[in-house]
Amino acid sequence: MLTDYDRITRYNTEVIYVSPEGVAQTRDFLNTAGKPIPFPVAVDSLRAVVKTYKLEKPTDKRVEVIPSIFLIDQTGTLRFKYIAQDAADRPPIGHLEEILRVVTGERSRSGQ
Q1: What is the mean pLDDT of the chain?
Q2: Alpha helices in the chain (DSSP H)
Q3: pTM here?
Q4: What fold, for 5-109?
């Protein structure tokens, strides 16, 4: 998502990274990215977002909580949720742009 951030925000869309860890663990993880993260990072150590969006994956006898990325448009509508478990699961950036292009076009036609 770091490499595609500029392309996504052209559509008045924000990227928000939700970390299910505490502040220290999240900071350590972000420091491994090698460059500044250009989008907001929300720490969800109480796991309220995790529960709302069911971002849990049973692993053996424990539950693993998966960091996730949300694309939210200017109306506050969630347009895409990316479970950051496997980068290969994310659709190509062209597909995400098409979703945002359609939504932007629909909004401009309706006069919003």
Answers
A1: 79
A2: 5-9, 23-31, 48-53, 93-109
A3: 0.67
A4: Glutaredoxin (3.40.30)
Are 1 and 15 within 8 A, CB to CB? yes
- Domain limits, the chain: 5-109
In angstroms, the CA 48 to CA 25 distance is 18
- The C-alpha atoms of residue 106 and residue 102 are separated, in whole angstroms, by 6
CA distance linking residue 95 with residue 84, whole number of Å:
17
How far is residue 47's CA from residue 54's CA, in Å, rounded to a whole number?
10
CB 37 within 8 Å of CB 17? yes
* pLDDT at residue 85, rounded to an integer: 58
> 13, 35, 17: which is closest to 93 by C-alpha?
13
Q: Environment class of residue 91 by beta-carbon count within 10 Å: exposed (0-12), middle (13-18) or buried (19+)?
A: exposed
Q: What is the pLDDT of residues 27-37, one digit of tens each?
A: 888 888 778 88
Question: Which among 75, 3, 81 has a CA at the least distance from the CA of 39?
Answer: 3
